[in-house]
Write a structure and sequence with these properties.
Elements (H helix, E strand, L loop, with lengths): L14 E5 H17 L3 E2 L1 E2 L6 H7 L5 E5 L2 H9 L3 E8 L5 H10 L3 E5 L2 H8 L9 E8 L7 E2 L3 H11 L4 E9 L9 H24 L6 E5 L1 H4 L11 E2 L9 H6 L9 E11 L4 E4 L21 E3 L2 E9 L4 E5 L16 E4 L4 H5 L5 E4 L5 E5 L6
Parallel strand pairs: 1-18, 2-11, 3-4, 4-5, 5-6, 6-7, 7-8, 7-9, 9-10, 10-11
Antiparallel strand pairs: 1-12, 12-13, 12-17, 13-16, 14-15, 15-16, 18-19
Helix pairs in contact: 3-4
Length: about 375
């Protein structure tokens, strides 16, 4: 159903609503940070997975993005984007789809995390006139995918790539995911600076070995949300969550509450004063449970926007429980009659947005101007 021109209060709930002005401001700040450091922004699209969000991240150029799924790559290719990095470790089952993407795009890049992936690609013929363009995934302390930054293995893999007929080396890529474990901005900046140093040193090590390294970059929204001249020593950054931000980013100091663009709209179902609770129509199919034990209250799933004393504290599949944050507080039922609206601030916008087939994009007055449709699946 089309809600364009209507107020968000007309929406069925639960619904994922997006403040367009905040998205635009968030994207402009990140583009400006990259520009003032003389580097490129390769925005990660996995938070929103929409064409419109990708346009905002690229400043309208539709160039230089990184995705987490092939279905994102295919959607962006269908809508005129190029210079796309599939930022997920390559395995052989991806071949048919990456072949098609390599064939149709001017620049399509793959992520490899080990030499086995490189060997698979070398043994697989690319489209006529093309080669497989690859980034090497590097671990700088996140302890997920990739080769450890100071291991000789990284040099040997790049040496193998540059000796291949069917591969071309694009550079090294690290995700500062360990910045999410920080407890202060100072800690976030320490993780960022350490990761930058590791990548610069690895790039230097490759050059000393006679191996060209065109690009080296780091990225996570916490590590890229604070200005620093350390970025000047990179060629690109690749954060993603900043498009919407969320309560986790607020807690990490990446943004303020006023910067959070994506929220979940819900309606009050009933009041239960003996339990100091009210029920809403937002369960775990509409917002993530991530964040319990990591926010202002140990039971908090999501704070209630514009009501600092209230939180979503529990959920079943379709129902949420809202209660006061203070153990001595009560809910004023007269402020929240049955059927009235509340806005929940997700702890993790990526996971919460993924619950919804449509994003209702509104202006500062709450009038819906656009409906964004994220791609689904893998």
């Amino acid at each position: 159903m089309n809600y364009i021109g209507k107020h968000i209060s007309s929406l069925p709930t639960p619904a994922f609503i997006v403040d367009k002005e905040k998205v635009e401001n968030n994207c402009k700040r990140m583009l400006d940070l990259a520009k003032c450091n003389g580097i490129h922004l390769r925005g990660q699209t996995k938070t929103h997975k929409t064409v419109e969000g990708g346009i905002a991240q690229t400043g309208g150029t539709k160039r230089k993005i990184v995705t987490s799924t092939l279905v994102e790559c295919e959607m962006y290719a269908d809508h005129g984007f190029d210079d796309i990095l599939y930022g997920f470790p390559y395995i052989q089952s991806h071949l048919e789809r990456v072949f098609a993407l390599t064939e149709r795009l001017e620049e399509f890049h793959l992520m490899v995390a080990n030499q086995e992936a490189c060997q698979m690609l070398e043994q697989s013929s690319p489209p006529a006139g093309k080669v497989w363009s690859v980034f090497l995934k590097v671990d700088c302390g996140n302890a997920r995918a990739g080769v450890w930054w100071e291991d000789q293995e990284a040099v040997e893999i790049v040496k193998f790539i540059q000796g291949c007929q069917n591969l071309t080396f694009q550079g090294i890529y690290a995700h500062c995911g360990n910045s999410y474990a920080a407890h202060s901005v100072t800690e976030v900046e320490r993780v960022r600076d350490t990761s930058v140093d590791m990548m610069v040193r690895l790039a230097g090590k490759l050059k000393e070995a006679g191996l060209e390294c065109p690009n080296w970059g780091v990225g996570s929204t916490p590590s890229c949300s604070h200005a620093s001249n350390r970025f000047e020593s990179l060629t690109e950054i690749h954060p993603g969550n900043y498009v919407f931000y969320d309560n986790q980013q607020v807690g990490l100091g990446s943004c303020g509450l006023d910067d959070v663009a994506g929220k979940v709209l819900t309606r009050v179902l009933g009041h239960y004063p003996k339990r100091r609770q009210m029920l809403v129509d937002c369960g775990f199919t509409a917002i993530t449970k991530q964040g319990i034990g990591s926010q202002a209250h140990p039971k908090m799933i999501a704070p209630v926007d514009e009501h600092q004393n209230l939180m979503l504290s529990n959920m079943t599949q379709e129902i949420g429980f809202v209660e006061p944050i203070s153990s001595e507080g009560n809910i004023d039922d007269t402020l929240h009659p049955v059927g009235s609206l509340l806005k929940l601030i997700p702890y993790h916008s990526c996971a919460s947005a993924a619950c919804h087939p449509t994003y209702y994009v509104h202006d500062s007055q709450g009038i819906i101007g656009e409906q964004w449709t994220p791609c689904r699946g893998w």
